[in-house]
């Protein structure tokens, strides 16, 4: 199973919930590429309870037609400010999402320079290497030989991690579709009306720009329930592109 590395990232922790044989990658996009090419499993962050969907994961779900979500793991996130000697330093390494989740706390620190990196474990590695600070997990603190300066109090901080593969899953209590619609009045209403008529609850709807056409968008929609052939047949009539991306249990 492939995850966003280096070792001891939150993605690493999530991957270990599913397999003991896990391998780091340099980016979320690389995970999707490997999953499609090698027909293996990957795990990617899908959504954070404080900062919303992870754009790189959503965009790759739309890009790769034959990659599906099989399970979702809901992980509680605890962030720590750390350095090699446990002292405040003037440079901070962090990834974008950890920074946004800790922004109010960071404002109170006297930091001259903030360096953004791909993951919290990469932040920990660089903090040790450059005698700086980082925001990371407790697992990264312990394994990179850092010392905690302070636990960052971010209540209700959870991240959903999606187990992805080339095999579609048709059973579970949640499902995801991606779709595009014509740019005209009532187009989105026609989609949502079908869910209302079928008495199906929506748990998330979100729009992202298409990479191929400026100012055009696709929609990411999660709903309660498993694969529903009747529902998808109705949705085909009111969408331009429709992609079923899997039904799954939330663990």
Automatic annotation (TrEMBL):
Origin, by domain of life? Archaea
Pathway(s) it belongs to:
Amino-acid biosynthesis
SUPFAM superfamilies annotated for this entry?
ACT-like, Periplasmic binding protein-like II
Q: Does the keyword Amino-acid biosynthesis apply?
A: yes
| Gene3D superfamilies named among the record's database cross-references | 3.30.70.260, Periplasmic binding protein-like II
Instruction: Give UniProt keywords alphabetically.
Output: Amino-acid biosynthesis, Aromatic amino acid biosynthesis, Lyase, Phenylalanine biosynthesis
Report domain ACT positions: 176-249
The answer to keyword Ribosomal protein applying to this record is no
One BP annotation, GO: L-phenylalanine biosynthetic process
Question: GO cellular component terms?
Answer: cytoplasm
What CDD domains is this protein classified in?
Answer: ACT_CM-PDT
- What GO molecular function terms would the record report? prephenate dehydratase activity
The record lists the membrane-crossing segments as none
* Domain Prephenate dehydratase, first and last residues per copy: 1-166
Annotated protein name in UniProt: Chorismate mutase
Native source species: Nanobsidianus stetteri
Lineage of origin: Archaea, Nanobdellota, Candidatus Nanoarchaeia, Nanoarchaeales, Nanopusillaceae
